[in-house]
Design brief:
By secondary structure, the protein is of the alpha+beta class. It folds into 2 domains: 1-38; 44-172, no CATH class. The protein has helices at residues 6-38, 88-100, 133-142; strands spanning 44-49, 58-64, 70-79, 82-84, 106-107, 115-116, 121-127, 147-154, 160-164, 171-172. Strands 3, 4, 6, 8, 9 and 10 form a 6-stranded antiparallel sheet that branches. Strands 1-2-7-5 form a 4-stranded antiparallel sheet, with helices on one face. It starts with 5 loop residues before the first helix and ends with a strand.
């Protein structure tokens, strides 16, 4: 067996150091990529709000509690084994109003192409200071067995998420 010269040992140490450096660079690049994705993560949530006296007001809220904007791709309403391509306001006027004759509704439309900035809160549909219509709207939107609003959205890096129902955690689609 031949003895290794100091040149061979130095070459081997240089190769090992180079491989270690390469591994470190690849690992750091992966960490930077993950940090960039996390720094623009939108986090949409839907909530019930009942400001004022009980039974007098009801608001169905959408909030972006993330740190990046959400680009809306789809809005659907799941109701009685059917899926409606409506936002909550359109659903209120086309489905709820004919059934319950609801009036005095305030709303904000949320449709494909809309941007919800980080920290933004939107009142999707609501009734204030109305003891007749507030309980009707609450009955429809607060019971997850009756209606589920689903919003599909993307981050600035194209990650697609689905927020479905009240107080549910968004689910990453891809």
């Amino acid at each position: 067996m031949k003895k290794w010269s100091s040149d061979r040992w130095l070459s081997l140490v240089a190769i090992i150091a180079s491989l270690g450096t390469l591994f470190t660079i690849v690992y750091q690049t992966d960490l930077i990529r993950k940090q960039q994705y996390a720094s623009v993560l939108p986090y949409l949530e839907m909530w019930n709000s009942q400001p004022g006296r009980p039974g007098e007001s009801y608001i169905y809220l959408l909030m972006n509690n993330g740190i990046g904007p959400a680009f809306i791709k789809e809005v659907k309403i799941h109701y009685k084994d059917s899926v409606y391509n409506h936002d909550p306001a359109s659903f209120t006027f086309s489905v709820i109003k004919p059934i319950d004759s609801i009036t005095n509704v305030s709303y904000s439309n949320i449709k494909k192409g809309r941007l919800v900035p980080a920290g933004e809160q939107m009142e999707l549909v609501g009734v204030t200071k109305d003891t007749v219509n507030a309980p009707i709207l609450k009955k429809w939107f607060s019971d997850q067995d009756v209606i589920q609003v689903e919003i599909i959205y993307e981050s600035v890096y194209g990650e697609r998420w689905s927020a479905r129902g009240i107080a549910s955690e968004p689910m990453k689609l891809y």
